[in-house]
Batch of 2 targets.
Target 1
Amino acid sequence: MKLYKAVIYLILILVSASCANDEHAPIIPGSANVSGTLPVMYIDTEHNRPITSKTEYINAFYRIEGSADGNFEAIGSATNPEPMQIRGRGHSSWKGNKKPYKIKLETSTGLLGMAANKHWALLKPSESSIAGFQLGKLLGMDRTPSIRPVEVVLNGDYIGLYFLTETIRIGKNRVDIYKQEDGETNADLISGGWLVEIDNYTDESQIVVPENGSWLMNIRYHSPKDLSPIQSTWLKTEFKAINSAIYSNSTDWERYIDVESMARFFILQEVMDNPDGFHGSFYLHKDLGEGCKWVAGPAWDLSCYFRKKTDYTFRLPVHYQITPHWIGKLIEYGDFCRSVNEVWSEVYPGRLNEIYNYIDETISPLEAAWANDCTRWGEDPTQSAGVRAERIKKYLRSNMEWLDRNLPKGKK
């Protein structure tokens, strides 16, 4: 089998060289190469095909070379790479020159010390991702994805620094809950096993329900992927009932939503000052069983506003004028606010202050790779890893101090 893979791989390399043409050449603002300071992931697509679709995977082979410090073992080799598939991913991020990718391995594999799975993402690096995912873990959001920095060479082209990231999906080592079948028709099995994403894009696999009399809510169902009529009806009815309960000025909404998980999610968004917190990449999941409620998270797509915080982030108008869902009403409820205060007392200052050393320890080794990435993609070379680390620490500290002085009190 290994000899077979090696022969196929060598054939692909020869074919790719003959099939390559300028039409599919990537945009190259600058010349750069691997830094030698991080693990390197080499990916070669079948026939050197460009990755142009966000929905269709193409076949490829990969190998990962460990870093010089020997912290991670290599996977595959130049003569014996491992099979995989790859496609594009993202919304606005897909429009840039540097693309994010979704990858699917042939076999479930643990990459760079992370738990084994077939499904991964290669995301553009940012100090916000480093801080946000770790803050999620410090806040006790136990299904928060892990990330590892890696440099990537795609079809022989160095495409810079990426964060190899666990994706959000139901399964072992990810969101470990019951997973209901696609097209399920048994009414006893459709009240749990859900993973959905409330988002600000119109996309496939969505239902749209009214949140209140003023705006709608786009709900993308990730699991199950294909709904039977009974599943579709249940999901629409469920979220209409949740919306009605939240806006009823009563505690009825607590029958549907896990209050503490929503409190932790709220704190994460406010500490990060994430403008997309309650209207973009807002994940919820629900297990199957008596008393199971919708749980907020896992956290995803975290960014930082890098501003002087003077109010709750969800109250600020964002440039595309999208209204955050639920939180403007939830913050009026005493039970929700009490839970926020209780969680805050649990994590601040002690546990959350661990983030500063983590940022230094995680970002410092990226100095050379981030510099090469800036060269490769024509970005500002003054935005060094050290500058990024100091910036995110400054704003996180300021955001935490502001929230500590302005914890919500509630009206009901």
Target 2
Amino acid sequence: MTEGLHFREVFNFENMLDPEEIYEFCLKAQEKYRCFVTVVKPEERGIPFTAKDCICTKGVLTAAGSKILQNYVPPFDATCVKLLKEKGFVLIGKTTMDEFGFGSFNVNTEIIPKNPWDTSRVCGGSSGGAACFTALANFPHIALAESTGGSISCPASFCGVVGVTPTYGLVSRYGLIDYANSLDKIGIMSRRVEEAATVLSIIAKKDERDSTSVGSDKDYLEACKNYEKAIEFKIALPKEYFENVDKDVKNTVEDAIKKLENKGMEFTEVSLSMTEYALAAYYIIATAEASTNLAKFCGMRYGLELEIQGNFREYFSKVRTAGFGEEAKRRILLGTYARMSGYREHLYLKALKVRRKVIDEFKKVFENFDAIIAPVMPILPPKFEEVKDLSPLQHYMADVLTVPVNLAGLPHISIPAGFAKGLPVGMHIIVDHFCEEKAFMLAKLWEEIRGEIKYPSL
């Protein structure tokens, strides 16, 4: 790992279970909470990690939550997985997710995880399994996850764990089954800020196999050690992010802000008016790119294969009808429509212009502020029966606070602000591109002020 980083500084080896105990724990977690697609029995001691089902793992099923990839076993590891294994981390499972990342509640798949704080409620999506198990694991563990429009922050908020989404391009996407190429980001979930910082220092490496990879040689754990300097940060509070938000969520985040203010931190209200347009732009861009990416799953070279009957069009339609779920089909249709002749300029290209304006607006704020703080989700984790009654548009609207920052490719951390009605509430820490150190410093400061969280036992 990065020079100067020592696992024993961060991970509590006194609580480390042996491989057999870890395996049994994972099986029990799966039985009660359904957080895994595959449980892997570790063959040796090491720091356990899980990987979201869309991140390729050599010799282990990687299906991105979809029937169309139900038999895909990669012959290689994703770069982030490879880098962790080289440092002695041990894979213990693949966590469940919404099919191809298409969802905010992790209900668009066959294996639907249950929230550890209340099993009648959702974990959030699309990395619900990763957040669920992170909240449950009573031994040193980190989860590799992925975010396109909020798929790390949302479940991290709903399950009460730390969720780190780095700058787009900081972590290689090689070995990631794509949702939307210009938006996908591999990140981390953990219980503690320093654990995530340590892992980001390992996996944030330039990779020639990913043309968007930038990488970094920064020591993010060192930033955590300097957390007290974050008191001097100037923080922006975007007024739009506190509007139309559940009062319990708003009050919990505002209470955290007051505690930071009492320590001497300076807060100023700002406006991010492009928030109003970010959601629509995101879903046009994301579905257009998803439509393109999923075209390769046609039953010939990639994906589910059936007995060949009829012409190509008939076979193609039969395979995709059987292999894709309802939400995947919806997003393919929406994206295909946005890319059609006559609509591309009106929808897709216009959405790209909106993204540019969203980025510019964030950049303007960061000219005068070190970070932005806001609620992660506008609601507390809903019950399964409540989600069942939501329309597709209402599902998409749940992303209203996580989409802008993901659209801009900015780094952000979801950290537990506190609890309301016994349920965790996440607070977003957003910083400028490649300024992850500031996010870690501020997150660690808040973690010290807030104190330890007593997580649910299995």
